[in-house]
Design brief:
It is a single chain. Helix 4 packs across helix 5 and helix 4 crosses helix 8. With 248 residues, the protein is of the alpha/beta class. It is 31% helix and 25% strand.
């Protein structure tokens, strides 16, 4: 039986395990998907050695960047982003070859593309982690200018307290790449001047639990177009399967 899995820490909120095991059952695929909750990325070789049937892995927080040094090949896109979240495991005799890809970009761009209008030219990316790098790559590939937003003073970022209503009017696409508002802390949201938003504003939240975050709800009250990260997740899952089993 083939194995696929997810590495990260912690993994309590994993979407992938139920999605893929359901897919295998429905489609009669002789495979299983397992969560490998590893407290350090240095445990990856042990996971591979003790699971010789592994054909592919997903990678989540906090290993999307750290895992790159363990890989034999990294796709140009993933290298440009600086983060990998899909690994194809290729067995060549006793040797194991690891190929890294990024499905965040594919999932995100396909999901947000239909929402974009000609007046969407600039975007704010909330957060500076691995996912935000992929979102930045995706938005730029769609022709938008981007700025990262951070709570801290960092190079090439602006801080939340500096986001004025004028900034919201100019940067009318806002993507939340932080965990703020994720269950069980669903009463929280990024600190923004929501009252400056209108029907020209897009709020896209990578969070999918709860279905409607406070970030989305507050924007929607002022007419903003909102979307959560569930479709992106599904599109990422399709892309993972292609990376693992396609001709790439």
């Amino acid at each position: 039986m083939d194995k696929y899995g997810l590495i990260g820490y912690p993994l309590g909120h994993s979407f992938s395990i139920s999605y893929f095991n359901e897919k295998f059952a429905n489609e009669g695929i002789d495979a299983q998907y397992i969560n490998f909750e590893i407290p350090t990325i240095e445990a990856l070789p042990e996971v591979l050695a003790s699971n010789p049937e592994l054909k592919g892995l997903n990678v989540t927080i906090p290993y999307k960047e750290k895992v790159i040094s363990f890989l034999d090949h990294v796709s140009p896109e993933a290298r440009a982003i600086g983060a990998v979240n899909v690994i194809r495991v290729v067995h060549k005799g006793k040797e194991v070859e690891l190929k890294g890809y990024n499905s965040d970009v594919i999932g995100f761009t396909k999901s947000i593309e239909s929402m974009l209008e000609k007046y969407h030219k600039k975007a704010l990316i909330l957060g500076t982690g691995g996912a935000s790098k992929a979102i930045n790559f995706g938005l730029r590939s769609l022709g938008l200018e981007t700025v990262f937003v951070s709570r801290y003073e960092r190079p090439n970022t602006i801080q939340y307290q500096r986001i004025t209503p004028e900034v919201i009017k100019e940067y009318n696409v806002i993507v939340n790449c932080t965990p703020v508002g994720m269950y069980p802390h669903s009463e929280e949201c990024p600190q923004l001047p929501y009252e400056a938003m209108d029907s020209h504003t897009i709020l896209y939240d990578l969070i999918y639990n709860p279905d409607e975050t406070l970030f989305m709800r507050r924007g929607a009250e002022y007419g903003a177009n909102v979307k959560n990260g569930l479709e992106m997740l599904l599109l990422q899952a399709f892309a993972s399967w292609e990376f693992w089993n396609g001709e790439r």
